[in-house]
Amino acid sequence: MSAPSRSGGAREPRARTTRARRPGGAAGPRIAPEVFAGEVLRPSELAGRAFTGRRVAVLAPGREAAWILPEVARTAASVKVFQEGPDWLLPLPLPLPRVAVPVAGRLHLRLAVRDPWLRRRLTPDPRFNHHRARVDGRYYAALQQPHCTLFTWPIFAVVPEGVRTAEGIEHRVDVLVVGEESTLAPLLFPDPSATARAAGSREDLPA
Asked: What pLDDT sits at residue 138?
C-alpha cells in the first residue's frame, strides 16, 4: 500500500518515478517527460492558450518566469513557480550601467513586493548572478496573487501527478511550462538529432 505523501493523498510507488542523470554523469534532477500524465509545454506554445480550471507549474529562471507567469496566471486555477534562481528586474528597459542595475533592481523590488520573505527569495546573489536585467512583465504583481506561489526548492523528479522537490514534497499539477533557459529543458525536451545520432552509433556496433 502506498504511504501518504506530505502534500496529501497517496504517494506514487517508487517504480513509477522515472529518474535520469545530467550529461556527464553528474548528480542532478532525475527527470523524464514521458512519466508525467499531464501536458509539458515550451513558452513558445503559450500564445492564445487558456488554462481554465488547470493547475500549472512554471519551471524557469526568474528572467524567463518574469514573462511566463503573467501569461499563465491570467486563466489558470493555480500556478506554482519553481524558480531556478532570481534575476534583477526593472520596471522599464532602462539603459543603466552595470553597476547601477542592482541598485535600481533592488529599489523596484522593494516598491513592488511588500512581503520581506518574498523579497528575499527574489533577490539575486551577486556572487552567482551575471545575467543582464530584464523588464518586469508584471511578474512581481502576479506572484502576489492568491493563486500563485513561489518555490525555490529545486526539482528532484517528475512523477505522474506533477513534480517532487528536493525536500520530498510532491506538487500535483496538470501542466508543466518549462523555460527554454531552464536547466531542466534539455532533460524534458531531448534533442531529437542527438537521439538519432546515438541510435545510429548503436547500429554501427558489431553484433
From this structure: 94
